[in-house]
């Protein structure tokens, strides 16, 4: 981006032109009103008063017109503010133009712009200037996202209100049953939108420091799986207490016992082989929602316990069984969700860690710890779980479908809500 190419006078002219274009509706409406009232006054001295009174009555009778006018006025004001902030921050292309707002939508937390970039600008420079633009707009933050269908467009969210409440309640307490084949609401994003997660054919690795909210993330997934009566659940809990509340809806529940965990994983490996034999017999490549068997979700809390504790032979056997389930289980409908404090190579071998397609990094104490969860290099590109506010429990960086980590907040489940979901899930499964 060549800012120094343009002199001050060449920059001032487009600014004036942009401001005039921004006010064109107000100017046109004002001039037209005066002309119309003047024409009416030439016909009768009472005509302007009648027109003003009629207009007021119409606006009173049609609140939708008032709301539409107010919405458009706010949108024009927001666009003018964005244009002026772009000039003040010297966000310009090679032709001396600023980004053009093509569409603006008000959201519960701010303003959402669809912006066409001038020649010489692309997504990365816009993302780098986001803090400067937020300061010029007087906003909490500015988020810049690329439009993958066209590199000349970006989406810019002006955040004016914190999208993350202190406590986010889950809606699963009020849901009768679920369908894990469909994307389900997993969290809310920084822009206030719902983040949906599609688990079939994907595995998820969760990491973070103690108290960051890993168990909250696991509870949301277990609740979603438990309320789907076609889903089988296997729970391995190295701490014994985090997943124990869900044991009533699980096919297998294993506490801090590596030998028992190995036995359960061996059974799952046999189940996986049997499913592949059926797929081969019916000339299918993977299981489908309408197939003869459902999904099987394996949830492991404190993965480090099973990979670092006990006898060496048991650790190696557990690691190999887990690797086989993650590597081959996707087409057979087996989904692995694992959580640990720090999935470094000393704790989780890289040949297991790298098989997880989805990653969720909760609050971490170092950039290295964040990168061990999300992948090498994300911290240097601005996505580090170190920057998460320690007071915001349940907030993490999710690396999923979009290909870039997104800041999300997960819903919280208290003991009473978990008990209600478990009782509902047991009833649905009995039926």
Describe the structure.
- The protein is α/β, with parallel strands linked by helices.
- The chain has two domains: 3-159, no CATH class; 172-430, Rossmann fold.
- It contains 13 helices and 14 strands.
- The chain has helices at residues 8-22, 24-43, 47-61, 63-88, 123-128, 130-137, 214-226, 258-281, 303-308, 312-328, 350-353, 367-374, 415-430, and strands at residues 100-107, 110-116, 141-146, 153-159, 184-189, 194-197, 204-207, 232-237, 252-254, 296-301, 334-340, 358-362, 395-399, 406-409.
- The chain has a ten-stranded mixed sheet with strand order 6-5-14-13-12-7-11-10-8-9, with helices on both faces.
- α1 (8-22) runs antiparallel to α4 (63-88).
- The relative contact order is 0.10.
Task: Explain briefly what this protein structure is.
The chain has 431 residues and is α/β, with parallel strands linked by helices. It is 41% helix and 18% strand.
The CATH class of the largest domain turns out to be: Alpha Beta
Overall number of strands:
14
Evaluate the radius of gyration. Answer: 28 Å
Tally of discrete structural domains: 2
What is the third-level CATH name, the topology of the largest domain? Rossmann fold
Largest sheet: 10 strands, mixed
**Unreliable residue stretches:** 1-22
Q: What's the architecture of the largest domain, going by CATH?
A: 3-Layer(aba) Sandwich
CATH level-four homologous superfamily name of the largest domain? P-loop containing nucleotide triphosphate hydrolases
Mass-distribution shape: elongated
Which H/E pattern describes the elements?
Answer: HHHHEEHHEEEEEHEEHEHHEHEHEEH
Strand proportion: 15-25%
Output the number of helix runs. Answer: 13
Helix content: 40-55%
Q: Residue-averaged pLDDT, rounded?
A: 83
Q: Strand order of the main beta sheet, please?
A: 6-5-14-13-12-7-11-10-8-9
What is the end-to-end distance?
63 Å
Structural class: alpha/beta
């Amino acid at each position: 981006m060549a800012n120094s190419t343009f002199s001050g006078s060449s920059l001032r002219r487009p600014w004036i032109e942009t401001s005039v274009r921004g006010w064109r509706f107000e100017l046109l409406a004002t001039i037209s009103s005066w002309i119309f009232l003047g024409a009416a006054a030439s016909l009768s001295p009472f005509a302007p008063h009648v027109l003003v009174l009629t207009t007021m009555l119409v606006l009173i009778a049609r609140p939708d017109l008032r709301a539409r006018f107010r919405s458009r006025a706010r949108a024009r004001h927001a666009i003018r503010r964005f244009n002026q902030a772009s000039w003040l921050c010297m966000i310009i292309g090679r032709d001396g133009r600023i980004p053009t707002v093509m569409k603006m939508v008000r959201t519960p937390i701010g303003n959402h712009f669809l912006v066409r970039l001038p020649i010489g600008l692309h997504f990365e420079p816009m993302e780098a200037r986001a803090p400067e633009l937020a300061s010029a707009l007087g906003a909490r933050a500015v988020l810049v996202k690329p439009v993958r269908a066209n590199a000349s467009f970006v989406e810019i969210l002006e955040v004016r209100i914190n999208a993350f409440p202190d406590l986010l309640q889950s809606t699963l307490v009020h849901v009768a049953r679920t369908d894990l084949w469909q994307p389900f609401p997993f969290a809310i994003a920084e822009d206030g939108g719902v983040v949906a997660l599609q688990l079939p054919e994907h595995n998820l690795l969760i990491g973070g420091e103690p108290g960051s909210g890993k168990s909250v993330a696991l509870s949301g997934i277990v609740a979603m799986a438990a309320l789907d009566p076609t889903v089988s659940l296997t729970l391995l809990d190295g701490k014994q207490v985090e997943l124990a509340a869900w044991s009533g809806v699980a096919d297998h529940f294993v506490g801090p016992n590596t030998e028992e965990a190995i036995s359960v994983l061996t059974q799952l490996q046999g189940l996986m082989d049997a499913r592949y034999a059926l797929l081969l017999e019916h000339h299918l490549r993977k299981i489908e929602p309408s197939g003869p068997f459902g999904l099987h979700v394996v949830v492991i809390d404190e993965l480090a316990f099973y990979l670092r504790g006990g006898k060496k032979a048991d650790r190696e056997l557990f690691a190999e069984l887990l690797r086989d389930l993650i590597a081959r289980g996707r087409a057979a409908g087996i989904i692995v969700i694992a959580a640990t404090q720090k999935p470094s190579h000393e704790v989780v071998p890289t040949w297991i860690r790298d098989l997880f397609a989805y990653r969720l990094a909760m609050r971490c104490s170092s950039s290295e710890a964040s990168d061990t969860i999300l992948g090498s290099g994300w911290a240097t590109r601005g996505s580090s779980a170190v920057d998460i506010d320690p007071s915001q429990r349940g907030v993490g960086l999710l690396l999923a479908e979009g290909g870039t980590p997104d800041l999300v907040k997960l819903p919280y489940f208290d003991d009473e809500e978990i008990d209600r979901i478990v009782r509902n899930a047991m009833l649905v499964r009995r039926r």
